[in-house]
Amino acid sequence: MTKARHSLKDVARRADVSVATVSRYLNGTLDLPEGTRGRVDKAVTDLDYHPNPHARRLSLGRSDSIALVLPDIANPFFSRLAAAIEFSAEAMGKMVSLHATMNRGDRERAAIDLASRNMVDGLVFVTNHTPTQDVIERVNRFARAVIVDEEVRGADVPRLLCDNRRGGVIAGQHLWRMGHRNVAYIGGRSDLGSTAARLDGLREGMKGIEPKCIYADAYAKASGRDLALKFLSERMGETALFAGSDELCIGILEVFRDKGVRVPQDVSIISFDDVRSLHLFAPAITAITQPVDQLGHRAIELLLSDGWNEPGFLQKTERLPVHLTERESVSDIGQ
């Protein structure tokens, strides 16, 4: 038989005081005379009353929780980012509610609406597609929201990104130093800011040389496989390939293995992200390394910052530095 759960009304009735008196006393906002205090305390003990922590926090105007909306926790980049956000939020006394959207607009809307109903203390929004206008408007309604990893045009909230353009520059410079002049780029969707920034950086790092071929699709292994097949069928002497994410890179490598294409003897490759165990591949994959843990930590710092009323805070964009982790997947062809 289920044990009855007593309510605040039961405590008030037993102590012969009003519900508001009990509520304010238990919240620590009311000091009672000793006799009244004793009756309330005894009623709480006798009834084994435990306040609903969620309702109590909402009555105080806070939930001590943060909503994290991101595309896919099966993707190692996003799962690592979520872990970093959870770790940093816990240190600040906050819980994180996680919502995976699969990049679907209906799930983004539902997750943001649920976060709003739950009166979360802030929203961290991550996507790798272009959200619809109604999703952007929902993000803008939050008193505190931070966009992380991918630019969302039209959102009036702070952004926290990695320096995608600089990552492309570093990759291009490394390929140039190793003698590569004919390169290909396989990146994310063409409507994403990260895709364009990494490609622009690659051009700069290659001293203005345009990639021989450019392919764009979702940051996913399946896309990497499809685009690798297209690259091989259309190949025009490219000696190196810059992959816009680890997931794309793995899909590319699967096709290369199946087709007998050797890395780096036949094609050199650089990845972007470095969240997969690329050092364990044969050969180990050179990559542009993103500071994913720092992204998560800084997202919580921004969300809980005291600067939200400062001029220009909502327009703030921070870009965290990336760096090259050189391994064995780029050959020196000595041009």
Q: Examine the coordinates and then state which fold CATH places here, giving the name of the CATH topology of the largest domain.
A: Rossmann fold
Q: What is the makeup of the main sheet?
A: 6 strands, parallel
CATH homologous superfamily assignment of the largest domain: Response regulator
Strands, total number: 12
Q: What is the typical, i.e. mean, pLDDT?
A: 92
Query: What is the strand arrangement across the widest sheet?
Result: 2-1-3-4-5-11
Question: Stretches where pLDDT falls below 50 for ≥5 residues?
Answer: none
Order of helices and strands: HHHHEHEHEHEEHEHEHEHEEHEE
CATH domain class name of the largest domain: Alpha Beta
- Helix proportion: 40-55%
Oligomer: single chain
Tally the helices: what do you get? 12
Distance between the termini: 81 Å
Give me the CATH architecture of the largest domain, please.
Answer: 3-Layer(aba) Sandwich
Shape: elongated
| Main structural class | alpha/beta
Rg calc: 26 Å
Q: Estimate the strand proportion.
A: 15-25%
Q: What's the number of domains?
A: 3
Protein name: Transcriptional regulator, LacI family
GO molecular function, one term: DNA-binding transcription factor activity
Domain HTH lacI-type: 7-60
Pfam families: LacI (PF00356), Peripla_BP_3 (PF13377)
